[in-house]
Fold Transcriptional regulator, y4mF family.
Amino acid sequence: MKPIVTFIKEKRRALKLSQVELAFKSGVGLRFVRELEQGKTTLRLDKVNQVLALFGKQVGITDLDHVEEEEN
Amino acid sequence: MKPIVTFIKEKRRALKLSQVELAFKSGVGLRFVRELEQGKTTLRLDKVNQVLALFGKQVGITDLDHVEEEEN
DNA sequence: TCAAATCATACCCGATAAGGTATAAATATT
DNA sequence: AATATTTATACCTTATCGGGTATGATTTGA
């Protein structure tokens, strides 16, 4: 399972968006996008979803990665 | 995809835990467990993970449910 | 190599999440 | 039915998230 952090970074760059643009398009603050991409763990769920929605994703339940199988 | 809310409620009851016990075992406040099970969307990510960890789960990326296929 | 764009870090402020607790409502147990 | 357990609602306080912004670092590209 790919961490949210890396998913967002990859997806954003794939779409050639800057953090500023991503912030604007998703309606969150720039600060938030930065903290998000830097792996801050105390973010608010709804804000994270707000960003993920831009990529057709949302937060959901996944297995706890102990050893980690990969995919995607 | 099962919403986090329902997953937690189901899992907790399956393990015959009260909200109080769940709160204690996961190390979050009782209030948090309540708000979590009532679908509050502004919760902090790390706290949600703290609870999910008890069930071997964590928060991750899932598809946005438009029409919703079921499973599980 | 220099300039421009992008990103990281740090500060302040207002809003609110989280915890604690108390009480009421609802469920379960006897 | 009466009681005990569990859950919901409400109030208060503290800590901090999120936004804004400014500055410095890093990356990109001309």
About this structure: Residues 28-32, 35, 40, 42-44, 47 of chain B lie near DNA strand C (CB under 10 Å from a C1').
